[in-house]
Write a structure and sequence with these properties.
mainly alpha
């Protein structure tokens, strides 16, 4: 069974799904103007204090136009990313297990320190990703767009899907550029799936 911190790490690091979901919109009733009761304050006499709202993840970068040079940079980045991911995930697992061991030793008092330490491990991975992108001159938005295009092309091949939605989202020009590199992009996507499955198995190992 995956421990809570390890499972949270997999989700936050994007290893359960390659395309991160956008942050959901705040329901009207949750807006500051809709309630005079501050988060974490009792609603009235005898009421239990409410837990503060969870921090929402940063928004996913929107799609950007791509060209052949962008594809070349993404392919170089993705190959390096996948080559380094297994050892990076193993290092993250080992660090998080140390955090969990320290939390068990400290009991309830160690929960906040454990959460902070776990966030630090994930931020370290994100910083490593950003450094690899910067080294190749690839922006986060470009990488996200290319990853989604690769997934769409793979769906055409494996599930006989079409590119209608991808064309609406990314534009005909970007889709046409991706199609010129279809074989390599689909192969990379398939490798992603294999690497992520292996990462899940590794995380579940004792």
């Amino acid at each position: 069974m995956i421990r809570p911190l390890l499972l949270s790490a997999l989700v936050a690091a994007g290893t359960l799904t390659a395309c991160k979901p956008s942050a959901p919109a705040t329901p009207p009733g949750d807006s500051p103007a809709a309630s005079a009761t501050p988060p974490g304050s009792p609603a009235g006499p005898g009421a239990r204090p409410q837990a503060p709202p969870l921090a929402m993840p940063p928004p996913v970068p929107g799609p950007v136009a791509i060209d052949d040079k962008t594809v070349e940079k993404f392919i170089a980045y993705d190959k390096k990313y996948l080559a380094n991911l297994p050892q990076r995930m193993q290092a993250m697992r080992d660090e998080l297990r140390k955090v969990e061991a320290a939390q068990r030793a400290a009991g309830a008092a160690g929960r906040s320190q454990a959460d902070a330490a776990a966030r630090g491990v994930l931020e370290k991975m994100k910083s490593q990703d950003a450094a690899m992108r910067a080294e190749l001159g690839l922006s986060e938005a470009e990488a996200q767009t290319m990853q989604e295009l690769a997934m769409a092309l793979s769906a055409v091949k494996t599930r006989k899907a079409d590119l209608v939605d991808a064309t609406k989202k990314f534009g005909e020009r970007s889709v046409a550029v991706a199609q010129r590199h279809e074989a390599e992009l689909v192969a990379l996507w398939e490798q992603h799936m294999k690497v992520f499955q292996d990462a899940m198995k590794m995380m579940m190992q004792k």
